[in-house]
Amino acid sequence: MNIFNLPDLGEGLPDAEVVRWLVKEGDTVSVDQPMVEMETAKAVVEVPSPFDGKVTKLHGQPGDVIQVGAPLVEFDGDGSSAAAEAPAKQPAAAEEKPADKPAAKQSSNGEVFKLPDLGEGLPDAEVVRWLVKQGDEVTVDQPMVEMETAKAVVEVPSPVAGTIGTLHGQEGDVIQVGAPLVTFAGSGAEAASDHQERAEEPAAEEKSSDAGTVVGAVEVGDQVVAESADSVARALARKLKVDLTKVTGTGKDGKITQADVKAAAKDGSAKLGQSSQSAPTANTETSNPLAYKASPAVRALAGRLGVDLGQCNASGRKGSITRDDVEQAAKGGSSKPAAAQSQASSASSTTSSGGSRLPSITVTRDPQPVRGARRAMAQGMAHSHATVVPTTLVEDVNISAWPKGTDSLARYIRALVVASRAEPALNAWFDGDNMEKLVHPDVNVGIAVDTPDGLYVPVVHNADQMSMAESRAQVQVLRDKIANKGIKPDDLANATITLSNFGSIAGRYGTPVVSPPQVAILGTGRFRNELQLTDKGIMNQKMLPLSLTFDHRACTGGEAARFLAAIMEDLAKAN
Which of 138, 295, 376, 537 has the fewest CB atoms within 10 Å distance of its CB? Predict the structure, then answer.
C-alpha cells in the first residue's frame, strides 16, 4: 500500500480545502492524472497522482480541510515500483528477526537531495531560513528549509529519515532547481533499529490494521494519521468559527474529529464569541507551526521578535496572521480587528485612476532584499536588456471623437487586435538563439498591472475573439485575482503582445520594455488637451501619446510603423 500525503501546493500555506474529488475509490489512475481539486488561500489547484495504481481510500470529503503532510489518498501499489512487491515479500520478512526488517525511507550515506520544482515552474528559489542544522536527525516530511520563489515562501520537507550532513547555501543564497540542497550523512542504522523496536510494540490486532501493511513503518504511519486528524480538526474549527474548548470529542481517546467540529458548527453550541473569533483557540499548541495560519516568513519574523503566534490577532485573509499582526504584538499591543484595519486602510490609501492602491515601500536605512514579484520583475528586465534590441516609435493620436464615458482600456485592447491583423509581424515570438520567429494567428494581450507587491502582467487570452465589453470584464477578473492572491500561472502565460497603460498614473512618452519571446509592447501615456489646426480652424483637441517598443531583430522599422499607424487609425474612430 502507498499513502500519498498532501504536498505543499507551492504557496507556503499549512492546509488546503477539498473542493472536488476527480476520482473515486476503486478507480485505476496513472502518474500525473489529476485526482482532486484543493483550494488554498490563493487558488484552486489540481493535485495529480504520483503513482500508477488503484485508489483504495480517499481521505476527506468536499469542504474538509487537509493539513499539508496529512494522508490524502491511499493506493494498492505501483506496478513499476518496489511498493507493489511489498505484499509478496511480507511473509518472508515476517519470519526474519526484527533486526533484519527494512526501515522506511532511511537515507543512505552521502545521499544528495536536490531542490525540486516548488510548483511554479520557476528556475530557482532563495534560502530564507534553515530549520535544521548539520548533525540534526530528521524524519520523513520534516520541514528543513524555507525557500522563497517569485510568488511565495515555501517549506521544503525532508524526503528521507536520516542525519543532516551538509547544507548547501546560506540565507539569502539563490539555489537553482535541480542543484544540491541537502546532503545526508550516515546510513540511518540507529534510526532504523529504533524504528523497528517501536514497530513491535502494538498488539497483534493493531498489526493487522491498514497501517500495519506499511512494512517497517507501522508506528510512524499511525502517528501521522493521528496527528493530522488533530491538525485538520483545528483548521476546520478556525474556518467554521468553532471553539474547540466547547466541543466533546467522539474519536479515539476522546479526540475531536471533523464530524464533531461540523456538528458543533451546525447546532451553534460552540460558536466563538465576537471577541475571540480572530484569535487561535485556547488549547492550540503554540509550538506547532501548523497550529496557526501564517506563512513561513511570518513565522520566521515571529521567531526573530520573540512573539508567540497565540498572542497575535489574525487580521489576514481567511484568518491568517500577517506581518503587521506580529509586529503589533511585538510592540506590546494587539493588532486591530480585521474589519477596523480594513476600514482604516481603505480610508487612508491613495488610489490611481485605475482604482488600485499605490505601491507602499518600507523606508529604511538598511538594504532590503528584492523578493517575490519584484525579484521576478528584476530578472525579467535583466533578461530583456541582455537579449532584446529595442527601438521605440512615439506618436500622438487625436481621440476627441470618443463619446463621454468611453472605456479607454477596452479601446487599447481592440486597437492592438486590429493592428495585429493589419501587420501580424509584431504579434509574434522570436527565438534569437535559433533565429526562428513564430507569428501568432490569435492575439493574447498582456496587461501590465501595478500592485503594492510589484508588477504583474496577466493575459487576456484570445482577445481577438472578444467584444470590448468582454475583454474589459476579463481584465477586471484578472485584477481581482491578483488582489485576492488567486492569480494562477496560466493567467500570466502565453502573451503575444503587451500593453502598458502607464498614463493612468503619469507620464506622456516612455520606452516600455519588451518581454521575450514577445517582440512588441505598446505604452499609452496621459491624455492632454492641445490646440490643433483642423478643417474648422484651430481647436482644442484631446490627444493620446503612444510609445511602441519593438525588438528590431524580429521586426523592421516599416512593420513597426505600419502597426502603429493601424493602432492610431482605430483609436481615432468615434466608436
Answer: 537
